């Protein structure tokens, strides 16, 4: 896995408008102030990376390692930080509205002054972080529909209980299989939902059930490789 430079990332922004760098080694880089809206930095190494005042709206930092990273003043509204390692990260004065922090490690992370409406930290995350907002019950919200295209699928899919997941596939599905670690527990993912007359036959939808993790496998036949997804459902 090669190292990257700020100049290389600037070129990607100029040429493609969006950075797609899953698994990249960006450790220690100065990326402060960059526009990384919708970027895919899942599984990336962001250890000690300077992301102060960066625009990371809707970005995926799923399962990234960002120990000691500096995010102060960054806009992370709607970002996916699920399972990210944010130990000792500086998240002061960040915008984290509607961000997904499911399973993120926040030991010693500084959240002083962070705006976190619509985000949720569990009691343990709050205890380990610095300056986390006071504990409160999440605002009631209606289930949402998350639409994902097969070409864009990478990494785990995060949902909240009651959400609807619609997958827009490249080929019509022949069969689906859902597995979860505890087969006797409540279903984590329910479906596929019964298709309707106006639903294209390449589309398939499911409903998020109880919190937990499930594995979804969709077969297409005709010698095509199956689609395999990890599904993580939170409350």
UniProtKB/TrEMBL annotation:
What is the residue range of the signal peptide feature?
none
Q: Could you name the domain of life of the organism this protein comes from?
A: Bacteria
Query: Know the name of this protein?
Result: Pentapeptide repeat-containing protein
Species annotation: Paracoccus laeviglucosivorans
The UniProt entry, under SUPFAM superfamilies, shows: Pentapeptide repeat-like
What Pfam families does the record point to? Pentapeptide
